[in-house]
Structures are given as structure tokens and as C-alpha cells.
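pasting for ref. prot 1 ->
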Amino acid sequence: MTIKLTPAERSELRAQAHGLNPVVMVGESGLTPAVMKEIAASLDAHGLIKVRVFGDEREDRIAIYETICEELGAAPVQHIGKLLVLYRPKKEAEKDKTAKRKGAGLRQVTIVKPSADGTKKPTVQKVLVKGNERVTQGGSIKRAKVRQKSAKKSALGTK
């Protein structure tokens, strides 16, 4: 049940993983259920992780690598020395995408206006603001201005 990656995808993931630090360490006890659970949680949260395996036997590290990939449905990206790089698409990312699509243009803003004479309570108002609107310092809602275009660039014919 492992994910198959093309060489181009694997290369891209290796480049992304270069700056990562190992998030899970596999000690002398090997792959315990707690370690597997932690690797699964890290894959769900990050998608691309590094795992450090402490052990001198290369065959044992390869066996651990294959076991993790098969049991968790992850794709093997890279195995260098004692570092293993694993990839599995994030589960949270799918939820975030659907949540963003539902209300992408609207956001709730609280506007607090002080009273005119300063002795009464300020008025508090919750307003839905569209993506192209902003709230001014005075508390009024204005539409965002159209971005100015350069006269020189438009004369040259570029964007």
C-alpha cells in the first residue's frame, strides 16, 4: 500500500527535505507501537519527515524503512546513512482546502467606535467584510483601491 513516486517527484521531495531536522528517533528498541504512532502523527501533520535510526546494521535500517512505508502507506523518498525521508500527503490539508473554499471571501471583523463625548460606552459592532474590502481607522468599510499601473511599463507593452 505504499505510494509510488516518479523520479521527478522524488527529486522535488528530496530538495524540500534537505533543510528538515529529524522529527522521530528510532532507538535500540526498534519500531515499537509508540514509535509507529508518532511517525504516523508526524506524517499527518507535516507530510514530509525525516526519521533518524540509531543502529549500525544497514540491513536493519532498510528493514525498518520498508516496514514503516508498508504499514503507514508512506512513500520512501531517500535513505542516507541513518536518516530516512518519508512522504505521505497530509490529511489536514484536505480539510483546510474545503474550509477555505466555503467562506473564502468573507471574514468577520469587530469594529469598536468610541462615543462622541467620551463619557458613554463605545459601540461594538461585528461586521462581515468581503475580500476586497477593508476597515478604516474611523471604523467605516471601504473597498480596496485598484492597484496602480506603471505608465512606463504600459507604454512598453509589458504588464
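and prot 2 ->
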Amino acid sequence: MVGLLKPRPSVRGGNSLSVLALGSINMDLVVKVPRLPSVGETLIGHEFFSAFGGKGANQAVAVAKLGVPVFFVGQVGDDDFGQTLTLALKASGVNISGLRTHRELHSGVASIVVSETGENTIACAAGANGAVDEVEVEFVRSHLPETQVLLLELGIPFPVVLAVAQAAHQAGVTVILDPAPAPDNLPDSFYPLIDILTPNEVEASHLVGFPVEDRPSAEQAAQILQDKGVQNVVITLGEQGALWHSSQGTVWYNSYPVTAIDTVAAGDAFNGALAAGIASQKPLEEALHWGMVAGALSVTKNGAQPSLPDRKTFFSALESWPLATP
């Protein structure tokens, strides 16, 4: 199937344009347990670690690790976590000129419980992420001329997400939205601004109002979302693979045979690599291959940003794992 994206020639003599990621940045506090606890149940975990996270920051790092220029735009608190998160982004090669420090709010924190099978539950305290405002909107607007792809998620105030999506759409920049944390609904006027919508099965279920758990329900959900105006819908279903749906039809892709240890950053790895592929002038189908490979690699390691594949590991796997349909 031919990729459906707005053409945008490079302004850097053939080199990839920048990716810009706007979103949340958190310190992840992770407990590994035998299984996910039931409501009201206390489980004794067997491992604890902290890791750099936040969907927006994770996606930016995923791009940077593949060697594509990327800006991260967001806010941290004026605390130890904020300083550590800032240094980690910089060390990963992310441009942090759009990262602000809020003097009164704490940095975002995510409490994550991970089972032995890699499933997880996450509770976040937004902190400074909830203060992202017009300053960040203006930063994004000022950098759109040098941006190929805008990565968005919903861990910051929605009016900010809407404003930058409108600006990017008008500028001809490819807009990728990871609709997480999963909303119960989004305004109908928002969907036509999105070039690629990338929900997992849980997020897709929230958006369409019925369970998305297999191929028939995913195809139904994708059609509903495409009818709302999204150019491309990509629904990931873990071991069942992924669906790509557009006005030209639906394609299913197989997952890769990996052993899942921690799935917390699978979606972020997918989106970051997808954006990196597009910014590197790859056709959409090839960029989706990048996303599938990066997502699969990420679940084989613990933590969010620590699990994101580096350039050498990624391109080795990319050559070994072809994009396969059922």
C-alpha cells in the first residue's frame, strides 16, 4: 500500500529534517512483581529501579538514538529529578532548548508495576507536565520550518496539543499522535489534523467506545477513526501484530518473536522510530517497519529510556527482521 503523507522536501541538502517531540517527561519508579495486583491487594515485589521516562521524552530519545536530530519540548520541576532528567536527555543527544524548569511544581513522576510477563500498570503525577502552556506552543511554532515530523501525546494539557497540531498541519508538517494517556474521547475537529494516529488496543478502545482485542475489532475501530479524518491509523496489538489503515485499504503486519520482559516503552519506541524513518525520507511502509522493529527490541529490556535501541542494534535487527504480513 502506498504511504499517504504530505510531501515535504528536505531543506538540509538531502539530510534528514528534525523531529520535534512535545509532551511529558517523568522519573519512573518501577517495581517488578510476579503478577499485576488485584484491586485492594498488596504484593511483595522482587526488584525496584528508577528510570528516565515520560512519553514525550521517551519518544525524543528513541529518535536521537537512531541518529536523527530531535528537539524535546516540555517542562520539569526545580528538583533533583528535574536536574537528572535534563542531563539524561542531553546525554542521549536530544536538543533540550525547548525544555523549561518550573520553579514551583515538582517534576513528573510515574509509579510503574511490571509483571513477570512484561505487562504493566502506570500511575502518573503530572507535576510540571501540567504547566506546559503558550510558551511551549510558541517554541514549536518557531521551529516548524525546520521540522519534518511532530510527535504528540496526551500527557500535557490538551489545549496545547491542539494548538501545536493546528500550527503543524497548516505548515505541512507530519503530525503523529500517540493518544495516551488514553482519553475517553477527542473532539471530532482534532482528528483531521493528525497524519498518523498510533493507539494500542487499550487506547483504541477508549477512542471508539468498544473493546479492541482482535483483528476484526481493530479493523472496525480503524475505519471509524479514519472516517473522522485521520489520514493513517496504526493500531498495535502486541503479539497479534499491527494494523495500518488508510483510505487505500488495510494491511496487517506480524509481530517479531521476542521474549517480553517489560513493555512500558514499546509504544514510545515504535513512534520514535516511525518518526525517525519519516524524517529520513523513508516511505511510510518502510518507516512503519522501523517502528515495528524498535518496538519489539524495546520489550526485551527493563525500563523506558534504557530499553530504547541504539543505532547499531536497531539497524542490525532491521536487516534481520523483514516486515511480514500474515
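Residues 284-298 form the longest helix (15 residues).
Residues 18-25+54-107+129-320 form a domain with the UDP-N-acetylmuramoyl-L-alanine:D-glutamate ligase fold (CATH 3.40.1190.20).
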